[in-house]
Amino acid sequence: MEEPDGDRAARAIAHVRARARGGPLPPDVRVTVHFHPDRPAGVDRSGQPRTTLEAIAADGVHLSQFATGTSGGGLTAHPGGDRWVWESRLFGGAYDDAPPRERPVYGSLDHRHLPAGGSVRFGSAHLRLRAEVLRRTTSCWPDSAFHPVDVGTADRCDLLGLADAARGADPPADPLDDYVEAHVHGPLLIARDVEALVLDPSFRGPAVPGVPVERHAGFALRRSDFTRPEIVAYRGPDVAAAGAELAARSGGTLDPAGIGAAAWAGERAGGVDGQTLKRVWHCLARFGFRG
Q1: What CA–CA distance (Å, rounded) separates 242 from 251?
Q2: Which InterPro entries match (predicted)?
């Protein structure tokens, strides 16, 4: 199997392949890379604030948390941080001294062909990557935060069966944790590697030139939904109350665009802090898909 350019990437994939088991992935499996398209992502060349999707469109590349400093998960991508330690273990130290832009990009193996992608925990939108990207993709199950021992490559992967078996466990896995983590090694170039950009219907921002746009059915919860016992229990009463307040500000129904607007408001008077917004999104992702 052809390796990607770059010594670090080749060493990382070889390290994972030596520990992987099973046969090749089915040819219809795709990697999905999730993100929140309307989150703040620094400034453009003129100094104007820009969104994550605007940054992707302008730069033509999707970068890891090490380079961007943003994430739909935890922010531990720095030397000695949890993400740095997990990658050192997963990839045999191949990236220990790597520049941030050379680090792998995280996604999931969407072997179930879900309309909203393989790992909605990390965002309402996703990039669906071309089949060719699998040749430079490694994977693990469960998430690397749990120090997994089961890993895979495109030609050696038994992880899909492990993930599917967890659905029948007692208690069953949280649906937001029910994904096979994927790592794309080498540059993720938008024009070369992306098959489609899949957005929530609430998002009305710019597209990416040359990339087909699709929309899934969307995520939404009404203000009253945030009083449901299962939602209150999921991330706690404070998060449910914040979700209800955001829904009220959005006309009674909260969708990803409403959370994005709150992210831009930040922690100013009446604002909601980023960790609470992340957990409100978890509630929306877990209970609010309209498909």
Answers
A1: 15
A2: DUF3626 (IPR022074)
